[in-house]
Amino acid sequence: MALVLASVRLLPLAPSRATAPTSSPLSVTRTRRRALPLPRVRCCASRTSHRAAAASEATPSWAGELASSVPWKAAVSGALALAVCFTCFVGSANARTGVNKPELLPKEFTTVIDVAGFLSSGQENRLRQEIEDLEKDTGYKLRVLAQNYPDTPGLAIKDFWQVDERTIVFVADPTFGNIINFNIGPLVDLDVPRSFWSQVSGKYGNMFYWKEKGEDASIEAAVTAISRCLRDPTGTNNCSEVL
């Protein structure tokens, strides 16, 4: 008995260019889908160690390659980076609006400016003494500004404090939730892990902390943590803990 097979024709699932049919009637026509080009991706940043990032990348934040072999280039680069990052920092701390009110500055030089009235006179004196001792021992310059936006001297503090590569500007402002903000000089960034500043801000600057203990307690705790960190010997584990 002869067995008769019915021919089967399979329709493609999606319209495409078909290849030439094979000789067998039961063979399935296979199509080759056109590969879509992958979009080009530009990487804006990469996770690197704070030392490698500070030494090898010229980013707008704390950039400035401080090469000892070409000191004049290092000075220009560091000064330019400091000016750019300080402007960006004050802009973000002041609700992205440039504020410049030199009339709110004190008449005499001081390392602690409290235009918000968070600190008592005794607290201000203790902080000034701590900052003075820290600068003598380490060479780092810590400056504290307590404000309530928009009541702030803003950009005027840059010239008042002569902010440079070894300066840490600590702005205490509860307006936007977290009370602690920092501007870090490029040379400080080489010795202190960037994660340290986030830890200080997260521990002592969060809203629950300063609402329970007070703005003054947040400021004093942050200054103490910074002082301990900067006195630590430089190494892989320095400033790894925020006490």
Structure description:
By secondary structure, the protein is α/β, with parallel strands linked by helices. The protein has a domain of 130 residues: Diaminopimelate Epimerase, Chain A, domain 1, CATH 3.10.310.50. Helices cover 39% and strands 8% of the residues. It has a four-stranded mixed sheet with strand order 1-2-3-4, with helices on both faces. A hairpin with a 7-residue loop joins β3 and β4. The longest helix is centred in the middle third of the chain and has 23 residues.
Beta-strand content estimate: 5-15%
Low-confidence stretches at least 5 residues in length (pLDDT < 50)? 1-29, 38-96
Please state how the strands of the largest beta sheet are arranged side by side: 1-2-3-4
Helix content: 25-40%
User: What is the mean predicted local confidence, pLDDT?
Assistant: 74
Key phrases:
243 residues; alpha/beta; 8 helices; 8% strand; disordered N terminus; TPM_dom; TPM domain-containing protein; signal
Kindly summarize this structure in a few lines:
The protein has 243 residues and is α/β, with parallel strands linked by helices. Helix content is 39%, strand content 8%. Residues 1-18 form the signal peptide.
Secondary structure elements and pairings:
Layout lengths: L49 H7 L14 H23 L18 E3 L6 H18 L2 E6 L9 H6 L5 E6 L7 E5 L1 H6 L2 H11 L2 H7 L1 H17 L12
Parallel strand pairs: 1-2, 2-3
Antiparallel strand pairs: 3-4
Helix pairs in contact: 3-8, 7-8
